[in-house]
Each structure stands twice: as C-alpha cells, then as structure tokens.
Amino acid sequence: MKINASTISLTVDDVAASHGFFTKHLGYSEEVAAEGFAKLTRDDAVDVVLLQKGIEVLPPEQRDQRAAGLILAFTVTGLEAEEERLRSEGAPITMPLREEPWGEKLFQLTDPNGVIIQLVEWTTPV
C-alpha cells in the first residue's frame, strides 16, 4: 500500500465555527464545502474534513458522535512567535506554552467545537 495523502475527519456540532477557526488561526484554506461539510487544506499539513454531527453520509452508529479526546498536533518552527501571533488574534490558548524535560516545547488551543490543537517544537532535552 502507498498512502498518497492524509486527511483527518472531525465530526463537530458547528462546521462553520471550526471552518472559521482553522482558516483564520491555522492558515487552512477551503478546498470544497457543502451543507454540513467542509474540506480544508494546507500544502504542509494533513487535510481536515469537517462533518456536521448527525449528517446522513455517516453510518447511523457514527452520526451522533463528535470529535472528543483527540489532540491534533502540528510540529512547527518558531513556536514562541506562533503563540504570540495566536494570542494577538484572540485565539483561545487553553494550555500555556511550556517545555518538557525530553525536549518538547508546546502549547494548546481549542476551537469553538472543543477540538484541541497542539503546536509543538522539538528542542534539545534539558
């Protein structure tokens, strides 16, 4: 098997709210959208599909589920500058910037549907 692309599909209560968050704060652009659906893309990251909770394209047993317990992590450079930019934009930083002893610097923000996004930069362990 050869994987040609990667996409994460998130079932959310409000597609428009997550769409706006990902495009405004994370640099995604809309590839395609319809009622209850949006596919967002970046050249350097996994594509994101947003599905409206209850949408009929999902099997019945999945329709009432929504994104929960998931952390969508992106490895970046210039982490401090990204945190500063996001704060200045009013993005909800829900875990402040910190550095772990194994060399991981990170912070988290949460979109309007509760999707947790973690930005990470790896450094030399302290």
TrEMBL record:
Residues 2-122 form the VOC domain. InterPro entries: Glyas_Bleomycin-R_OHBP_Dase, Glyas_Fos-R_dOase_dom, VOC_core. GO terms for molecular function: dioxygenase activity. This is Glyoxalase/bleomycin resistance protein/dioxygenase superfamily protein. Pfam families: Glyoxalase. The lineage of its organism: Bacteria, Bacillati, Actinomycetota, Actinomycetes, Propionibacteriales. It comes from the Bacteria. Keywords: Dioxygenase, Oxidoreductase.
